[in-house]
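Limitations

Structures in this collection are predictions, not experimental determinations, and the ligand pose is part of the prediction. Treat each record accordingly. The example that follows, with coenzyme A as the small molecule, is included so readers can see exactly what is and is not provided: the inputs are given verbatim, and the output is the predicted complex.
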Amino acid sequence: MNELQWPEDITIKILRGQEMIPYLEIAAQWRIQEFKSFPYLYEGNMEYESMYMHECEENPEAILIVGEKKGEILGFTTGIPIGTMSDLLKSLRNKLPNADEYYYLAECIFSPTVRGRGFAQKGIKLFEDVVRGFGYKKICFLTVIRDKNHPLRPARYLDKDPIWQRWNYKKTDLVLEFPWPTIQADGSVIDFLNPMRFWEKDISVAIGNPLKSLASAA
Ligand SMILES: CC(C)(COP(=O)(O)OP(=O)(O)OC[C@H]1O[C@@H](n2cnc3c(N)ncnc32)[C@H](O)[C@@H]1OP(=O)(O)O)[C@@H](O)C(=O)NCCC(=O)NCCS
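Predicted complex:
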């Protein structure tokens, strides 16, 4: 485990593989709560989450970065190499000729009490530095595609694509479908095939000095 001290009494822990175990269940609870909303519409449960939790604890290159202040969790980022995942992202891995170069960013979630303070930007930068340190060339993730007129789209919904584009992630034309228990407009939940877009970023060249970026990250 690596532990960093950030200003304002914030502790950042970088955990790998089995070190993640104490945090996996709470990260799953956050995912279930957060991804219930548009655009994910994920009616999650611990049984479903346990597939990803199991993948993480078995994989020494899976990481969980957690920010805490006086024992209170402020946010999480987790990820796993695409090439070593077993079943969950098999269809994606099969589409990537150089899958071993990719590290998958599974999620980045911050507590609503600390959003808008730049933590995600700093957390993603730290994630990139750690993944680059493992020797991976690219970070990728998937975003859910929903119709602009989807009945569950909140009137004031803010599209997150511009955030990722500002951080130099590239939106690709690759779209795959993944099933999960999905909330429908009438409130029912069905195991639905959700279209997801593949995004990627080349991280092979560090911009700036990673150690300097860590020191200034808060
Ligand atoms: C998305 C999320 C991680 C951003 O965290 P954050 O700490 O508030 O982000 P930051 O303060 O670093 O802001 C980053 C940028 O995103 C913008 N932003 C923040 N939340 C946003 C949202 N919900 N929609 C659109 N833009 C948003 C900010 O204005 C900021 O833009 P800037 O760089 O031009 O200033 C946070 O809102 C969250 O946890 N959301 C729920 C989970 C989620 O959807 N995660 C992303 C997919 S895994």
